[in-house]
Amino acid sequence: MIIDGKQVAAQLRVAIAEEVKALKKSKGITPSLTVVLVGEDPASQVYVRNKAKQTMEVGMISNEIRLPVNCSQLELLAQLSQLNKDTSVHGVLVQLPLPKHIDESVIIAAITPEKDVDGFHAMNSGRLFNGEPGALVPCTPQGCIILAKQHLGDDLSGKHAVVIGRSNIVGKPVALLLLQENCTVTIAHSRTKNLAQVCQQADILIAAVGRAEFVQADWVKKGATVIDVGINRVEDAVTGKMKLVGDVDFAGVSDVCGAITPVPGGVGPMTIACLLKNTLEAAKLYG
Ligand code: NAD
Prior knowledge:
five-stranded parallel sheet, alpha/beta, Rossmann fold, three-stranded parallel sheet
């Protein structure tokens, strides 16, 4: 089975649009997302444009603040302080990566946790860690769980999940979400020994490594659910053109696993859909 992230994301956006409509009607609140973009990185511009388009499509208000690449950290902090105070704004997202002279951790900490729709603020990761309500959970990990459930159904309890990668934005939060789902969770990383054998234990294998086609067919248990988070740009051996591939050898692993997400068209589309979900959540909880 190929898990179609595009289709699942589209269904999620329809459900979000309905909830947005209901929230407007019941409480007069229209969820609103402000994205701050510093500089003119082409990939970031594409992401920001897509986010704005999809935000408006579900009936939310989308704002964009563009700052020049040489904007100082203080100027960016001043902008965030205004957004934090603005009661008409429910979600604030600073597009990463930031220029080198700006400290990302300072910026993430400056967004009020109630508007931190990326879920990167320590208060939100702490709430996720503690399993407390009210956490805004990072978007890509949320998307991974929704996609795994497409194949396995809602009850993941007792499954052995192996996550390759321990970053704060994907590996660690997805491991915590899997634990909340009562999975037995193993986190593998660059220092893990016998990685292939560790992966062979997995009923659910999540690859968030950033290495093209890294996970091989003989690492995967027959019937496993494979969620490929990786986005790697490589040259196509035949056409010579650049193309996107995941962290999993899709062709080989597809023959062994029970279900797999493609790249592109798997986890990627879920990330923005879950950003909209978080913006709705922020408006409902704190708006
Ligand atoms: P990262 O570089 O922060 O983390 C990579 C992790 O992989 C590290 O924790 C490291 O320990 C582990 N790793 C590296 N080499 C390894 C090896 N040889 N064996 C085992 N583990 C190894 O990356 P990230 O930000 O977590 O992103 C991972 C991938 O996911 C990237 O390709 C990124 O582009 C992609 N990504 C996709 C989305 C999406 O929306 N689909 C969102 C975020 C990240």
